[in-house]
Write a structure and sequence with these properties.
The chain has 726 residues and is mainly beta. The chain is built from five helices and 53 strands. Pfam families: BppU_N.
Amino acid sequence: MKTKLILDVNKTQHAQLNSIVTGRVGDKASNTVDVYVVDGFIPYNLTGSDVYFECAKPDNTSVRDKNGITMIDAAKGHFEYTFPAQTFASVGKSKQAYFTVEKNSTVKATTQDFIIVSLPDALTNRIPSKTYISQLDQLIRDLEAIQLDVLNSVAYQEAHDAKTFAEQAKSISESVQEQLNQIVINGDSSVEAAQARVDENGESFNTLKERIDKGFINNTSQIEILSNIAYNVRTYGAKLDGVTDDTISIQNTINELSKIGGGKVLIPFTNEGCAIKSGEIVVPSNIIVEGQNTKIIINSVNTVKNVFKTDKTKVNKNINFKGLHFYSKNDKTRSNGRGQLGSNVNAIVLSNVENIKLEKLTFENCEFGLKIDTYGKQIHFDNLSFNGTYQPFYVSNTDVITGRTFYSDRLGMNSGFDHHIYINSATTNLTISDIKMIGSNSYAIDVKDDTGNAPPKNIIFTDIVLNSGGGLIVSEQKADVTISNVIVTIDKTLTSKNIFASIEDGKLKVSNFSVSGGGTLISGLNSPNGIIILINGIVDRLSTRVVVANSLGYAKLDKVTFLDVISEEGVAIFNHTGCWVTLLEFYDCHLTLISPKTNDPISHRANNTRYFNCTFDIKTQTPLPYVSYTYEQARSMFKNCIVSGNFTTFEWVNSNGNVVFLDCVDERDNSIFNTKSAIKKLYGVGSPEGVITAKVGSEYIRSDGSTGSTYYIKESGTGSTGWIAK
């Protein structure tokens, strides 16, 4: 027996005469309802109108369908409807279900809601649940048929029809969006409405409309992808034998696609590869260049400079490169005048571009692998690999760059001026994750502003690994950079060895890092307003110093553990007259000294240094005479710090700088000291006379409550005598 539904377009409560529609996960075309649409108690005329079923399922996916409608008596508002399987794909009660009446894609009316309950089946409790729109489903099938015809015949008319279908699909999607914008669920504030504002990925939106808008954008992107027509470069004469120049064939393929509004250029894989010899290939808007890990062979002795490029005189949009392997030989002196043998070929140069995708690309022995300049917006990449390339990744004047899975190997390349990642002027909102780099004589990542008036901002790198490098990252000319989750291994034979650096007032924040192999942890050059902040790190040992700078505004180390504070010249904060940091702070750091090469391994020169809640753990085989030394031009402060281990005096008594100790603890005797000369406040049981060794001026408080004074001062002597009860 069919369920009978009487649905009022006025949505009045007294007209609610409906049963609950119940189905089970996996039901296919077996649930049919008998529907009467009324206006008050008067049948609603459906003549000349289209009727759609719309439903928000328990998991926030949706259904919009007209295929299940069987009209019985349109004039009396009577029809039957068979639900598609996706209606019952998610267990639970529907968030909303109703019918909409449309004419010429305009909504005339919607019915009151009714309830749909989906029961679990006995085996899986679910089938894959997804949004289902019957019109789009049919259009996709039509598009696939047309695309197959085009691939077989390269016929222009079919391509034109496909484009028309895509535009129709987009129009329908926009119509759906407009209708959904008009839906209000109890003021969008009910529990179900709140649940609907959370998408299938768990992302919460302020309003349901915001969530729908995002889904609409995603759907539109999918429709645009469906509109791409694929042309094979072989159709236009490409040989793909690795010898014959395929430049013109590829350019002709692109030009033909551009005539019909864009599409996909297919460069199939061959063992021999695709040779590019005669010139540069210009890629306009709405073009996808796709290979199958196809090798693009460029001989650097030829005249070609850029393999693919865009026309910088106009904005080029919606371009995608995918599945290509660029290969050149390192057999030519580089044209930029640096005098090294290498390739003079740039693989992809994008100028004046928007909405760019770069996927599964490999660059081998190029001068520039990927270069984006002049103007760029909305750049996304996934899986880029570089080998033997001097400037693997260069970006300037670009806003919104996102990328992941970046690999670059520059091992053995001698230039100190080139970097794995080079971010230049007017670049903003860049986020790159999953970065692995091998080899780099200089900084692996350089973020700078060559113009002097447009420093990069909001530059973020995460999940970074650098092996056999000379230095990790420098922020220059007021650039603002944040990096996290970093593993660095320094090659001490290289010349740089500056791990985190600021030049000319760059700002750098680093969190969750480990450093091994040596190097200078913090470096500053001409940065009186520069800032470097390091949070939560481990450093095994240093080959130079903790901080070296001719000028740096502020440096902060928070929760950094030094496993062995050592260097060839001692771990001096500075080692040159005239070098300074305005303020250097250590918070909750742990500094272990096992094998220092000087008698005062922590030195403070022309800087203001503060230590808060830090631990100094001295584990040398022989007693260390002094741990710290503060020069006359320096200031140092130790507050609530702990010292322990094998040393004689913490601060050298002849230090002529300004030194302050505030409630620091010597774990060797559990004393508190507040002066550099190790005058202490001690606690114990019984009299200290003949028992406690301390400096003259030290204090002792007796805590056992026995007969005698509870307070003593060491007034004379060098050993354990000279304690006077007070």
